[in-house]
Design goal:
mainly alpha, Growth Hormone, Chain: A, 2 domains, globular, MFS_trans_sf, membrane, MFS
């Protein structure tokens, strides 16, 4: 099939909805702690609940829905995401909100990998990096608009209204996908056991490991960005929301550049450059982000580097086995949210034990390890039959 920007754009609209669903808690943290009367660490577990449910649900529901026509699957996933956000808006307390986050995660866990696989199918191989980048651009825009706007709105109308708006946008995304996307046949069925067999290839394991470490590093800081910026630059409230816009703007540019760099140089060089850049930026964050201007520069560069990661990693996975692209992307989606889920636990522990200034330093170490994992994975020559080129 030929590259069809409008079709890929509606997939990006859907990833914006599920991305905002997943990431918005970072912007709502002050409102959640105030309205629910819980600590920042407890509120961050709403991120963990979403992420762990996503990580577990992605391969399981990919197997269950493997024979569904792709457009119908994508629409159903967005509807479930809308229901989860609506339940979050109506939740009377912390426990019910936690359960609503799990429902939301199920919809997101189905949508994101399926959308990436459909985008790859609708795109010629030489433009696949940019197509995947466009779909994941929805997640980037979620950080540019969704999270900061959620933060601003929560200060005046409360977090419930923010979840209600995300629910409405998820339904809008479902309608757009149904209207614009053509019917896309289901890929050849893959049993759940086969999914884990495929993951035994050490090259795949390296990419999944790098994804976990990268997301753990990024979200250990991003989830607790309010206390981090309060400690470094002494900023709060609306100023933090504006700085999140800056981070998201860097992420938007990084996502585009990551896709173009991957199409030009392949995945290896962009990944090593990006992980190296993130390591330096995070290590310098406590030293540079001591004013609003300094924080803006650091957050822009951090967003630029962080959101350059997804295109080369997904391109590499598709390159390793194009016939198993859907299941590999679902495993990568699980890896993303496993890292996000662990970030709530690790970040909360570091925040409680060492304070907010230690968070970026721990994250820098994790990204350096991720770069080493990428190098080790590329040097591996072991191949499994299921991963034939």
């Amino acid at each position: 099939m030929t590259f069809a920007p409008p079709r890929t754009a509606v997939l990006a609209l859907g990833t914006f909805a599920v991305g905002t669903s997943g990431y918005v808690v970072a912007g709502l943290l002050p409102a959640l702690t105030g309205e629910l009367a819980v600590s920042e660490t407890a509120a961050a577990q709403l991120v963990t609940a979403f992420a762990i449910a996503y990580a577990i649900g992605s391969p399981l529901f990919a197997a269950v829905t493997g024979r569904w026509e792709r457009r119908s699957l994508l629409v159903a996933a967005l509807v479930v995401t809308a229901i989860g956000n609506a339940l979050a808006a109506l939740a009377p307390g912390y426990v019910t909100l936690l359960l609503a986050r799990v429902v939301t995660a199920i919809g997101a866990a189905v949508f994101t990998p399926a959308a990436s696989a459909v985008a790859a199918e609708l795109t010629s191989p030489e433009r696949r990096g940019r197509a995947v980048a466009l779909v994941f651009g929805g997640l980037t825009v979620a950080t540019i608009l969704g999270v900061p706007l959620g933060s601003v709105l929560s200060q005046s109308v409360g977090y419930q209204a923010v979840f209600a708006l995300v629910a409405a946008f998820s339904l809008l995304g479902a309608f757009a996908v149904r209207l614009v996307l053509p019917a896309v046949p289901a890929p050849p069925p893959v049993r759940l056991a086969e999914r884990f067999t495929v993951a035994k290839d050490p090259r795949v394991l390296a990419m999944l490991g790098a994804t976990v470490l990268g997301c753990l590093a990024a979200f250990s800081v991003y989830t607790f960005i309010s206390p981090v910026l309060s400690a470094t630059a002494g900023v709060h409230g609306t100023t933090v929301s504006l700085l999140l816009f800056v981070y998201g703007a860097g992420g938007a540019l990084g996502n585009v550049l990551g896709g173009r760099a991957t199409d030009r140089w392949g995945a290896r060089v962009p990944l090593l450059v990006v992980f190296g850049g993130i390591t330096v930026v995070l290590a310098m964050l406590p030293l540079v982000a001591t004013s609003i201007a300094g924080a803006a520069v650091v957050l822009f560069l951090w967003g630029l580097a962080t959101w350059s990661i997804n295109p080369p990693i997904q391109h590499r996975l598709i390159e390793l086995s194009s016939q198993n692209a859907g299941l590999l992307l679902s495993l990568n989606a699980s890896a993303i949210y496993l890292g996000v889920g662990l970030s709530g636990l690790v970040g909360g522990a570091v925040l409680s034990g060492g304070g907010p200034l230690l968070l970026p330093e721990i994250a820098a170490v994790l990204t350096a390890i991720a770069a080493a994992v990428v190098v080790a994975g590329w040097r591996s020559r072991v191949r499994q039959p299921a991963m034939a080129e």
